[in-house]
Amino acid sequence: MEPKLSIGVILASVREGRRGEAFAHWIHAKLVERPELEVELFDLKEWALPVYALREQPGIAEKSYAEGTLERRWAEKVKSCDGFVFVTPEYNHAYPGSLKNALDQVYAPWNYKPAAFVSYGGFSAGARAVEQLRLVVSELRMVPVRDEVNVRLIGFTGDERGWPSDGLNAKKAEALVNDLVWWARVTKEGRAQHPR
Ligand SMILES: Cc1cc2nc3c(=O)[nH]c(=O)nc-3n(C[C@H](O)[C@H](O)[C@H](O)COP(=O)(O)O)c2cc1C
Predict the structure, then answer these.
(1) Which CATH number characterizes residue 161's domain?
(2) Which of 34, 164, 172, 188 would you label with 56, given CA atoms 20 to 30 Å apart?
Protein backbone atom coordinates (compact mmCIF):
# COMPACT_ATOMS: atom_id res chain seq x y z
CA MET A 1 0.00 0.00 0.00
CA GLU A 2 1.22 3.50 -0.84
CA PRO A 3 2.18 5.67 2.15
CA LYS A 4 -0.45 8.21 3.06
CA LEU A 5 -0.25 11.81 1.93
CA SER A 6 0.03 14.30 4.81
CA ILE A 7 -2.20 17.34 4.55
CA GLY A 8 -2.01 20.33 6.88
CA VAL A 9 -5.08 22.51 7.37
CA ILE A 10 -3.97 25.96 8.49
CA LEU A 11 -6.50 28.06 10.39
CA ALA A 12 -5.46 31.67 9.84
CA SER A 13 -7.79 33.68 12.08
CA VAL A 14 -6.69 34.05 15.70
CA ARG A 15 -9.50 36.43 16.61
CA GLU A 16 -11.80 35.98 19.58
CA GLY A 17 -15.14 34.62 18.34
CA ARG A 18 -13.67 33.76 14.94
CA ARG A 19 -15.87 32.14 12.29
CA GLY A 20 -12.87 30.40 10.78
CA GLU A 21 -12.68 27.64 13.35
CA ALA A 22 -15.91 26.08 12.06
CA PHE A 23 -14.76 26.27 8.43
CA ALA A 24 -11.39 24.71 9.29
CA HIS A 25 -13.10 21.78 11.03
CA TRP A 26 -15.51 21.44 8.10
CA ILE A 27 -12.78 21.07 5.47
CA HIS A 28 -10.71 18.94 7.88
CA ALA A 29 -13.66 16.51 8.16
CA LYS A 30 -13.95 16.32 4.37
CA LEU A 31 -10.24 15.54 4.01
CA VAL A 32 -10.34 12.89 6.75
CA GLU A 33 -12.97 11.00 4.71
CA ARG A 34 -10.27 10.24 2.15
CA PRO A 35 -8.42 7.04 3.14
CA GLU A 36 -5.23 8.06 1.32
CA LEU A 37 -4.78 11.13 3.56
CA GLU A 38 -3.61 11.83 7.06
CA VAL A 39 -4.70 15.28 8.11
CA GLU A 40 -3.56 17.67 10.82
CA LEU A 41 -5.11 20.98 11.80
CA PHE A 42 -2.71 23.81 12.60
CA ASP A 43 -4.44 26.58 14.51
CA LEU A 44 -2.34 29.75 14.34
CA LYS A 45 -3.81 30.81 17.66
CA GLU A 46 -2.01 27.86 19.23
CA TRP A 47 0.98 28.20 16.91
CA ALA A 48 1.61 31.74 18.16
CA LEU A 49 4.78 32.25 16.13
CA PRO A 50 6.90 35.33 16.87
CA VAL A 51 6.77 38.14 14.31
CA TYR A 52 9.63 37.45 11.94
CA ALA A 53 12.52 39.62 13.16
CA LEU A 54 15.68 37.71 12.29
CA ARG A 55 18.70 39.19 10.51
CA GLU A 56 18.83 36.42 7.91
CA GLN A 57 16.13 35.51 5.43
CA PRO A 58 14.04 32.45 6.36
CA GLY A 59 15.78 30.18 3.84
CA ILE A 60 19.01 30.64 5.80
CA ALA A 61 17.67 31.28 9.31
CA GLU A 62 15.52 28.12 9.32
CA LYS A 63 18.65 25.96 9.20
CA SER A 64 19.57 27.01 12.73
CA TYR A 65 16.24 27.37 14.52
CA ALA A 66 17.01 26.13 18.03
CA GLU A 67 15.71 22.73 19.13
CA GLY A 68 12.39 22.97 20.98
CA THR A 69 11.48 26.49 19.79
CA LEU A 70 8.13 27.09 18.14
CA GLU A 71 9.86 28.14 14.91
CA ARG A 72 11.81 24.87 14.80
CA ARG A 73 8.68 22.82 15.48
CA TRP A 74 6.81 24.81 12.82
CA ALA A 75 9.55 24.16 10.28
CA GLU A 76 9.41 20.43 11.07
CA LYS A 77 5.61 20.31 10.82
CA VAL A 78 5.54 22.15 7.50
CA LYS A 79 8.30 19.88 6.20
CA SER A 80 6.31 16.79 7.17
CA CYS A 81 3.27 17.82 5.11
CA ASP A 82 2.73 17.05 1.43
CA GLY A 83 0.12 19.75 0.89
CA PHE A 84 -1.92 22.41 2.64
CA VAL A 85 -5.35 23.96 2.88
CA PHE A 86 -5.29 27.57 4.05
CA VAL A 87 -8.54 28.59 5.74
CA THR A 88 -8.60 32.36 5.61
CA PRO A 89 -10.94 35.28 6.23
CA GLU A 90 -10.70 38.54 4.32
CA TYR A 91 -9.41 41.46 6.38
CA ASN A 92 -9.34 44.76 4.48
CA HIS A 93 -9.34 42.96 1.14
CA ALA A 94 -6.40 40.75 2.15
CA TYR A 95 -5.62 37.75 4.32
CA PRO A 96 -4.67 38.25 8.00
CA GLY A 97 -1.16 39.12 9.15
CA SER A 98 -1.08 35.99 11.31
CA LEU A 99 -1.04 33.90 8.15
CA LYS A 100 1.61 35.99 6.41
CA ASN A 101 3.85 35.67 9.44
CA ALA A 102 3.37 31.89 9.54
CA LEU A 103 4.23 31.69 5.84
CA ASP A 104 7.29 33.91 6.29
CA GLN A 105 8.79 31.79 9.10
CA VAL A 106 10.15 29.11 6.79
CA TYR A 107 10.98 28.74 3.12
CA ALA A 108 12.23 25.35 1.92
CA PRO A 109 9.63 23.31 3.82
CA TRP A 110 6.86 24.89 1.68
CA ASN A 111 8.64 24.28 -1.63
CA TYR A 112 7.09 22.14 -4.38
CA LYS A 113 3.89 21.40 -2.46
CA PRO A 114 0.31 22.31 -3.31
CA ALA A 115 -1.66 25.05 -1.57
CA ALA A 116 -5.46 25.03 -1.58
CA PHE A 117 -7.74 27.72 -0.19
CA VAL A 118 -10.97 27.96 1.76
CA SER A 119 -11.93 31.61 2.20
CA TYR A 120 -14.89 33.38 3.71
CA GLY A 121 -16.08 36.95 4.01
CA GLY A 122 -18.74 39.43 2.98
CA PHE A 123 -19.84 40.01 -0.61
CA SER A 124 -16.60 38.76 -2.10
CA ALA A 125 -16.55 35.67 0.19
CA GLY A 126 -12.83 36.20 0.81
CA ALA A 127 -11.88 35.77 -2.84
CA ARG A 128 -9.66 38.88 -2.75
CA ALA A 129 -7.66 37.36 0.12
CA VAL A 130 -7.13 34.21 -1.93
CA GLU A 131 -5.99 36.14 -5.01
CA GLN A 132 -3.24 37.72 -2.90
CA LEU A 133 -2.33 34.41 -1.29
CA ARG A 134 -1.86 32.84 -4.71
CA LEU A 135 0.94 35.32 -5.43
CA VAL A 136 2.61 34.73 -2.08
CA VAL A 137 2.56 30.94 -2.23
CA SER A 138 4.01 31.06 -5.76
CA GLU A 139 7.00 32.91 -4.34
CA LEU A 140 7.34 30.06 -1.83
CA ARG A 141 7.58 27.68 -4.82
CA MET A 142 4.23 26.16 -3.97
CA VAL A 143 1.57 25.10 -6.47
CA PRO A 144 -1.66 27.05 -5.93
CA VAL A 145 -4.45 24.63 -6.88
CA ARG A 146 -7.22 25.97 -9.05
CA ASP A 147 -10.31 24.75 -7.20
CA GLU A 148 -11.15 26.78 -4.13
CA VAL A 149 -14.04 27.33 -1.72
CA ASN A 150 -15.31 30.86 -1.05
CA VAL A 151 -17.97 30.95 1.65
CA ARG A 152 -20.20 34.02 1.56
CA LEU A 153 -21.13 35.01 5.10
CA ILE A 154 -24.04 37.16 3.88
CA GLY A 155 -27.01 34.82 3.57
CA PHE A 156 -24.88 31.96 4.91
CA THR A 157 -26.69 28.72 5.72
CA GLY A 158 -24.93 26.46 8.19
CA ASP A 159 -25.64 23.68 10.65
CA GLU A 160 -25.37 23.84 14.45
CA ARG A 161 -21.57 23.57 14.22
CA GLY A 162 -21.35 26.54 11.84
CA TRP A 163 -20.42 24.24 8.94
CA PRO A 164 -21.78 25.19 5.50
CA SER A 165 -24.91 23.18 4.74
CA ASP A 166 -25.54 24.19 1.13
CA GLY A 167 -24.82 22.07 -1.92
CA LEU A 168 -22.59 24.54 -3.73
CA ASN A 169 -19.95 24.81 -1.00
CA ALA A 170 -19.98 21.01 -0.60
CA LYS A 171 -19.43 20.61 -4.35
CA LYS A 172 -16.63 23.16 -4.36
CA ALA A 173 -15.00 21.45 -1.39
CA GLU A 174 -15.06 18.12 -3.19
CA ALA A 175 -13.38 19.67 -6.22
CA LEU A 176 -10.77 21.29 -3.98
CA VAL A 177 -9.97 18.00 -2.26
CA ASN A 178 -9.68 16.15 -5.58
CA ASP A 179 -7.37 18.79 -7.01
CA LEU A 180 -5.26 18.96 -3.85
CA VAL A 181 -4.84 15.18 -3.60
CA TRP A 182 -3.74 14.94 -7.22
CA TRP A 183 -1.12 17.67 -6.80
CA ALA A 184 0.02 16.34 -3.42
CA ARG A 185 0.68 12.92 -4.94
CA VAL A 186 2.37 14.24 -8.06
CA THR A 187 4.59 16.73 -6.24
CA LYS A 188 5.54 14.14 -3.60
CA GLU A 189 6.69 11.79 -6.35
CA GLY A 190 8.43 14.69 -8.07
CA ARG A 191 10.30 15.72 -4.92
CA ALA A 192 11.44 12.12 -4.39
CA GLN A 193 12.49 11.50 -7.99
CA HIS A 194 13.99 14.89 -8.77
CA PRO A 195 15.37 16.36 -5.53
CA ARG A 196 16.42 20.02 -5.79
C1 LIG B 1 -9.95 43.54 10.65
C2 LIG B 1 -11.13 43.10 9.83
C3 LIG B 1 -11.24 43.50 8.53
C4 LIG B 1 -12.29 43.02 7.73
N5 LIG B 1 -12.31 43.35 6.41
C6 LIG B 1 -13.17 42.71 5.60
C7 LIG B 1 -13.07 42.84 4.17
O8 LIG B 1 -12.24 43.53 3.66
N9 LIG B 1 -13.92 42.14 3.42
C10 LIG B 1 -14.88 41.32 3.96
O11 LIG B 1 -15.60 40.67 3.20
N12 LIG B 1 -15.01 41.18 5.30
C13 LIG B 1 -14.18 41.84 6.12
N14 LIG B 1 -14.27 41.69 7.47
C15 LIG B 1 -15.38 40.88 8.01
C16 LIG B 1 -14.93 39.42 8.11
O17 LIG B 1 -15.14 38.78 6.87
C18 LIG B 1 -15.72 38.67 9.20
O19 LIG B 1 -15.62 39.39 10.43
C20 LIG B 1 -15.18 37.28 9.41
O21 LIG B 1 -15.98 36.61 10.37
C22 LIG B 1 -13.72 37.31 9.87
O23 LIG B 1 -13.21 36.01 10.04
P24 LIG B 1 -12.93 35.44 11.51
O25 LIG B 1 -14.24 35.58 12.27
O26 LIG B 1 -12.59 33.98 11.31
O27 LIG B 1 -11.83 36.23 12.11
C28 LIG B 1 -13.26 42.18 8.30
C29 LIG B 1 -13.16 41.80 9.65
C30 LIG B 1 -12.11 42.25 10.40
C31 LIG B 1 -11.99 41.77 11.83
Answers:
(1) 3.40.50.360
(2) 188
